[in-house]
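Weekly sync, protein design subgroup
Attendees: M.S., D.O., the rotation student, P.L. (late)

Item 1: inverse folding check
M.S. brought a backbone from last month's batch and wanted to see whether the design step gives back something sensible before we order anything. D.O. pointed out we never logged the input encoding, so this time it goes straight into the notes. Structure tokens as presented (224 positions):
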């Protein structure tokens, strides 16, 4: 017994005919791309009835698969937000995008990467145990005809000087404002010290206030 495997992709065709000659053979033909399988299933009515039963059974199986369909993550094509040691890692089509302070911000950045690249695959959230949940809708909610929607409530530009209430270090610099999701800031003079703060904790920093730390500003730093 042989076991032949063919990949049909989108070029699958299945047909049943009865030969118009003395034999009257029932012919099942399966085409997969350029490969063709021909099966002679008999020549009598009971043979046709058996073939019909097999095809109806296959139809029911295909319908069940369709109705119970669940997409499976594709590491080489899809987008991911993964729970990591230092935050939430974002990747798209196998490339690492960045690590972010919250899951909501990571979802927003994944949508941003999709809009920038013009690619919109499925998206998944991966927890610390490796389990995946679909987040296609959450990512899609940030997109409008392929363009990224602005984050509601965002008002600070990158590099803006702010104060953060309840913090001993007074002078902070905005890395990214995600509106209602929070603002990522770092201490003036030390970009490695950063945090996510809500808008109600921030106010503009006045130039005449005394700076702490080393006078340092690098607009091209990685905020994470």
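Designed sequence read out in the meeting:
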């Amino acid at each position: 017994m042989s076991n032949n495997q063919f990949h049909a992709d989108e070029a699958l065709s299945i047909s049943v005919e009865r030969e118009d000659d003395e034999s009257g053979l029932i012919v099942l033909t399966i085409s997969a791309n350029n490969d063709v399988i021909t099966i002679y299933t008999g020549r009598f009515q009971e043979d046709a009835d058996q073939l019909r039963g097999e095809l109806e059974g296959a139809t029911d199986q295909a319908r069940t698969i369709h109705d119970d369909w669940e997409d499976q993550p594709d590491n080489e094509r899809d987008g991911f937000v993964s729970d990591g040691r230092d935050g939430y890692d974002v990747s798209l089509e196998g490339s690492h995008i960045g690590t972010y302070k919250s899951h909501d911000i990571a979802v927003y950045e994944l949508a941003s990467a999709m809009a920038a690249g013009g690619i919109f695959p499925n998206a998944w959230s991966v927890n610390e145990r490796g389990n995946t949940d679909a987040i296609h809708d959450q990512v899609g909610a940030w997109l409008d005809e392929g363009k990224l929607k602005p984050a509601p409530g965002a008002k600070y530009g990158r590099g803006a000087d702010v104060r953060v209430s309840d913090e001993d270090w007074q002078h902070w610099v905005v890395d990214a404002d995600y509106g209602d999701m929070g603002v990522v800031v770092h201490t003036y003079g030390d970009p490695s010290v950063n945090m996510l703060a809500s808008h109600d904790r921030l106010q503009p920093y006045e130039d005449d206030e005394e700076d702490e730390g080393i006078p340092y500003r690098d607009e091209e730093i990685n905020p994470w």
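Discussion: The chain has three domains: 12-67, 79-148, 154-224. The first helix runs from residue 45 to 67.
Action: P.L. to compare against the previous round before Friday.
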